Structure prediction request, 140 residues.
Amino acid sequence: MAIRKLASVGSILLGVVLVVGGIATWLMVSSMLADQRIVTPEDACLPGRQVRGPFTAYCQALIIQEHTLEMTDGLTYAELDREDPRREVAMNSSFLQASLFTSVLAFGVAAMAVGMGLLFVLIGLGIRDVSQQARAPAAA
Prediction:
């Protein structure tokens, strides 16, 4: 009996922590991106929008890659000769893309944490409900 109560309360508490942590992470990453005041260019998949969420960050990373490949004649950082002045452009591009893709990943992890948190809350409530039904006297 006590183990069910412990499992129920523990699951609900863990769920709440995951939901709060996921929401806090989402808001923090969104705020940090917004502070950069990045606006997607007109040729991006989501044109003219401030980068503050996973979709705009992804679109910005893709368009950076596209513009970089145009400047480097389709060559990546690793393919450019060490003496090629375009190599620095490709390096900066790779860094910016990696940063944006990291934020996309952070949004995904935050969303997963919220989803898992809600699942844990529901499991905890289910354990509590089953426990209460097991204690109720059976109808004669």
The chain has a mean pLDDT of 95. Residues 19 and 115 are 7 Å apart (CA to CA). The longest helix spans residues 86-135. The chain has three helices and no strands.
